[in-house]
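About this split. The held-out portion is used to measure sequence recovery: a designer receives only the structure tokens and must propose an amino acid at every position. Recovery is the fraction of positions where the proposal matches the reference. Here is one held-out target exactly as it appears in the evaluation file.
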């Protein structure tokens, strides 16, 4: 009796759980395939190029496809772990998949997608799960593994190795007190310009470069090497 490997099963269930939690409902077979692919892309970014599902992805027709994923989805549906229904629309057949209340299914964290990666996947689900055209465009043209893919050949997720979230920005310290004074002056000028334009959308749109110039000037003041770095404690309040 065929058995779906645990990584593949968990990936499919985690995707469908995210679909359900996003309030999307049911997704067709193509959308489910592409969402599992995107899950694998995000996983590869933070796991040295390794994918979560263990699918044997290759370039088929116009995009990523995996025979073992197709078989796994069918088996999970046959065993009732995934809810499904099939029908016809015109001269085309279709299948829909969704996750019922039980079993709950593994979370994204259970398949190795945490933090920023999990948030990004949730955003992709909400954006594309009901828009197949946009999902296909994103999958084919905006994911790195597809850029170098060749028809009939396996897709290389190794290109995503080290392509994870950017490092946390380190605050710059300034030793030159004259620069600090000039920056404070520029910040005050920027605040005054904003206050004058606040509430007047037309004026704000017409004079937006004012703020860009002030920002550029501030960046120019900060440019250059300081022989000595001294941290500047401060408190900011956003209103």
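Reference sequence for scoring:
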């Amino acid at each position: 009796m065929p058995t779906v490997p645990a990584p593949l099963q968990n990936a499919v269930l985690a995707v469908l759980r995210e679909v359900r939690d996003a309030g999307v409902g049911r997704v067709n077979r193509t959308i489910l395939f592409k969402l599992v692919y995107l899950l694998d892309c995000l996983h590869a970014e933070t796991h040295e190029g390794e994918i979560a599902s263990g699918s044997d992805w290759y370039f088929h027709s116009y995009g990523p496809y995996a025979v073992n994923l197709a078989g796994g989805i069918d088996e999970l549906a046959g065993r009732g772990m995934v809810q499904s229904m099939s029908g016809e629309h015109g001269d085309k057949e279709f299948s829909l998949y969704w996750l019922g209340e039980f079993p709950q299914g593994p979370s994204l964290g259970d398949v190795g997608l945490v933090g920023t990666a999990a948030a990004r996947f949730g955003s992709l689900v909400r954006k594309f799960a009901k828009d197949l055209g946009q999902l296909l465009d994103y999958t084919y043209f905006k994911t790195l593994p597809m850029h170098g893919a060749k028809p009939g050949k396996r897709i290389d997720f190794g290109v995503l190795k080290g392509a994870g979230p950017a490092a946390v920005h380190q605050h710059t310290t300034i030793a030159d007190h004259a620069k600090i004074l000039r920056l404070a002056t520029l910040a005050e000028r920027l605040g005054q310009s904003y206050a004058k334009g606040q509430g007047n959308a037309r004026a704000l749109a017409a004079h937006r470069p004012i703020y860009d110039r002030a920002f550029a000037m501030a960046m120019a003041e900060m440019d250059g090497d300081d022989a000595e770095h001294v941290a500047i404690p401060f408190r900011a309040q956003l209103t």
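Annotator remark: Residues 6-160 form one domain.
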